[in-house]
Structure formats: C-alpha cells, structure tokens
Amino acid sequence: MKQLQKFVIAAIVSVFIYALVHASTGQAALKLKSQKKVDFGDQTVTIPALDTPDFSAVKACPVVRIIDGDTIKVQESYGTMTTVRLIGIDTPETKHPSKPVQYYGKEASAFTTNLLKGEKVYLVADPTQGETDKYGRRLAYVYRAPDGLFVNAEIIRQGYGHAYTKYPNQHMAAFRQLEKFARNAKKGLWDKRAKSTADLTLTKKKTIRPVATPAVQPKPESGNENVAVYTTTSGRKYHRSGCSYLSRSKIKTTLGRAKGSYGPCGRCKPPR
After folding, report:
1. Cα(19)–Cα(51) distance, rounded to whole angstroms?
2. Is 267 a catalytic site residue?
3. Could you tell me the maximum CA-CA distance found in the chain, to the nearest angstrom?
4. Are strands 71-77 and 228-231 parallel, antiparallel or unpaired?
5. Is 65 a catalytic residue?
6. What is the DSSP string of 113-181?
7. Catalytic site residue 137?
8. Strands 120-124 and 138-145
9. Catalytic choice (65, 76, 119, 137)
10. Rounded to the nearest 10 degrees, how much is the dihedral formed by the CA atoms of 108, 110, 113, 114?
11. Are 68 and 160 in contact, with CB atoms under 8 Å apart?
C-alpha cells in the first residue's frame, strides 16, 4: 500500500513539474494533423497540416511594422518594440543593405503585410534555435491572433518564400513539403510566367533617341516671276489659289510683284 502511495505521489509531482516548465517557457505543443496528399501526375506531394498550438500561456503582440516578407516588428510591452525573424523560412530580399531588390521580394513583403497589417500575433520559440540571430532579431514561429494562422507555413505554402534549411528547426520537414507543394502547383515565385515588380523596377529600359533629320528646304524656283499668286485686301501674305485665307477677298497678281510687298503664306506654301 505504501509503495502504491509513493508511486501516485511521484506521478502527480512529475505531471506538475512538466506543466510548470512548459507554462514558464511559453512553449506551445505542436502536433501534426492528418496529412493531405496531392497528385501532380509525375509525383505525389504530402501536405502536412499543423494543429494550432495552445496559446493560453502566450501573450498576443500587436504588429507595428512589416519590414520584409520574413521579418516583422511587434510591440511586446508598452514602449518595447521587438524585431522578429520568422524561423525556418526565407523570402526574397527587399531591404538588404548590400543586395538589390530580389525577384518576387516586393510581392513577398506585400503578402506578409496583407496577412498581418493591423493584427496581433503569438510568438512561439523553438528550443532547437537560439533566442536571437546574429543581427539581434528575435527568432520565432508566428501565429496570427486570434485565428491561429501559422504565418511561417502559410508564406511557404503560397509560394512567397522557401524552406530555410541552413539551421534545422522543429518544422523543417513540414516546411520542405510545403515548398515542394508550392513548386509543383506553380504558386507565387515558382510560377515562371509571373513578372515580378522588382524585375520591372530593376530592368533598365533602353532609351531610343530619335535621329534628328534636317528640315527639308523648298528648292528655289527659277523663272517663275510671272506665276499667278493671290493677295487679300487686309493681309500681308500672298497665297496659292484655293488657300483658305482667300475666302473673303482674292486679288490676283504675279509672284514678281507680290514678293516686293508680301511674304509667302505658311499654310498653302506658294512659290518663292
């Protein structure tokens, strides 16, 4: 009987310590749901479905800025802003100090903005990762509050980033499968038919300058002093017959006489 009591007490203590440790670290249990298989003809891709963790011990933080497709800034407490790098994904660069805007970078930033602008998020750490990266950014899995959308996974699934495998993480296998699905489904940056706004911005358009051509000068007309031209009662120009300026008055004369007192009409271009 005493041994049974000791066993029960030890079991209760173990459960209490386990719950206390997990509550203090704010870690949420991450489980796999039933998986979905998609047939692409030449291969079948298994899409992992992740359960929404228990966020009872995790505080929801307002998103104050979208820095890039895989980097955001949140307010963890009053006056405290934290830059967060999403674990396990990599999106094309748009803000790198030494790199140009990469293909589909602006689209990736816009996608993350659409997901998180004006929203709150839950930040969940990964015990296999450090707390921050070499730039001082907090490393986290990001879940949108209150619906629990797994933002890291959604960015990869929709083709706006790829699985970042340089540093192994808890969800690396699942992220790889999501990338494989996006590639086969030709989503986002994997759709080679799509034209990125970055490409449109960075492509230097060749400026075609018009070649200047000299104005065609009228050839001098010789022996035409007796050619008939026409003047008006009030104008200072001479004209060809049929010029619209002759609608009210039309005085016939010769070119030789007209040139002494009149200039050629710019519209009908009479002989000079």
Report:
1. 19
2. no
3. 142
4. unpaired
5. no
6. HHHHTT-EEEEE--TTS-SB-TTSPEEEEEEEETT--BHHHHHHHTTSSEE--SS--TTHHHHHHHHHH
7. yes
8. antiparallel
9. 137
10. -110
11. no
Cβ proximity of 145 and 53 under 8 Å: no
- pLDDT tens, 246-271? 777 788 888 888 777 788 888 888 88
CA atoms of 42 and 8, how far apart (whole Å): 55
Q: Which residues of 209-229 are buried (b: 16+ CB within 10 A; e: fewer)?
A: eeeeeeeeeeeeeeeeeeeeb
Which pLDDT score, from 0 to 100, does residue 202 have? Answer: 39
Task: Report which residue type is found at 56.
Answer: S
For each of the domains in the chain, give its residue range(s) and CATH number, in order of start: 31-202 (2.40.50.90), 228-264 (no CATH)
pLDDT (tens digit per residue) in 170-227: 999 999 999 999 999 999 999 877 665 544 443 334 444 544 544 444 444 556 788 8
- Tokens representing 128 are 């296999």
Helix (H) or strand (E) holding 7: helix 2-25
Q: Is the pTM of this model over 0.85?
A: no
Alpha-carbon dihedral angle through residues 253, 259, 261, 266, given to the nearest 10 degrees: 90
The CA-atom distances, in angstroms, between 64 and each of 67, 113, 119, 140 are 10, 11, 9, 16
Question: How many C-beta atoms surround the C-beta of residue 108 within 10 A?
Answer: 29
More confident: 45 or 153: 153
Count CA atoms closer than 13 A to 142's CA, side-chain side. Answer: 30
Q: How far apart, in whole angstroms, are the C-alpha atoms of residue 180 and residue 121? A: 27
